[in-house]
């Protein structure tokens, strides 16, 4: 059941824990938050605020998980954020974690209400780490660019010296074809010119004869005039063609020097294309631009590095400043935490208990620039040592309850659940622990899972958790007990099954006594 509540707080869903692996699992919790002033929390996440807040988690057989707040789909991160303001579950694992430095620091910050300070610090820390990574990447890039600078500069200069133009290759190839075939071109053009305009039987002279005949024909009949006009037009076109062929022949002459220049130019272009494994001069020019960018970037490295280092140094100062604020807040809350905890422990049967919050400076990290150690001594004259080294199970339980009690007084958390926080204690200490939990319930809804009658007897309501083996599968069930059942179950915790009438009377009186107090 605690696992189901954990799902409402955003814990990881494990399909292995599903009772029916082929059916969707739905866990839903309804919280009355009317008196806890949480409107701003819902507004910050753009969620509808309702006096009865409904958290729901759905897990499909495939393992896909969905979360809802007041029927609005949300991410697990938002569910955790909302849930952390609605419920706190203390498990036996928390008690074991009390000896860990990170857990102690988190407890100290919770007791001091340092959430805003921590949030501000963590925001700067994230920016600082990002800037630091950017600087590291820039330095690595700079080292590589400097190493490759000469290489890229040589490649750029090589292309720059040849200076190829986008359409140059096609033009040069066409020109070389003409230069290499000058003799053949001259011969063929001359032959065409000779046929068109030679002294004997030229095409032009024959066409003139055709025109003369058509002229006489058209005089006899206008029907043939279009033929005459077409022939005359052809004569003009052929004369123009003859002139152009003549001019082309004049321009054609062998030019070995120019042919050599064109060949050399093309060879250099071909060599560049092959070297850079590209198909066209356009691609070559794009590579040239890339080389130029790398050269420019290398030339501007010092400026970029200087800018990045200034950013890191600025954020480092801001980080240290924020870390100092957080440190001072922790230093300020430490004596109060020690005093309040020791006072509560005295009430829990540990009058000589001493707690010391030891803060030591460390390089700035995700949680600040402090390392905390809870030093503890349960007996008079004993040396203060790490709490994990000297505290027994029962002492751990009392210390944790003391912390939870202090935190409950500083928060408006609607629901607190204790899972066997009474491990390792009994007798009068258990009675006192029950009274503390009862006092916490004046401002919070408190649920306690316990095997001690001293604590159970002080509850206002009781729920009995049991396993139902009547079906094919064992099912965990919970039911609220009526007044007589409450007395019977608490009496059973005292004297075992089938409590006597006298024990039932004493239990009733005990519970009445706690209720009146």
**Which radius of gyration do the C-alpha atoms yield?**
47 Å
At the fold tier of CATH, the topology name of the domain at 413-517 is: Rossmann fold
User: For the report, how would you describe the main beta sheet?
Assistant: 4 strands, antiparallel
Strand order in the largest sheet: 1-2-3-4
Number of strands: 12
> In the CATH hierarchy, what is the superfamily of the domain at 413-517?
P-loop containing nucleotide triphosphate hydrolases
CATH architecture of the domain at 413-517: 3-Layer(aba) Sandwich
Q: List the uncertain runs.
A: none
- Average the pLDDT over all residues and give the rounded result: 87
Total helices: the number is 19
Query: Strand share of the residues?
Result: 5-15%
What structural class should be given to the helix and strand makeup? alpha+beta
At the first level of CATH, what is the class of the domain at 413-517?
Answer: Alpha Beta
Query: Portion of residues in helices?
Result: 55-70%
Q: How does the overall form come out from the CA principal axes? A: elongated
Distance between the termini: 31 Å
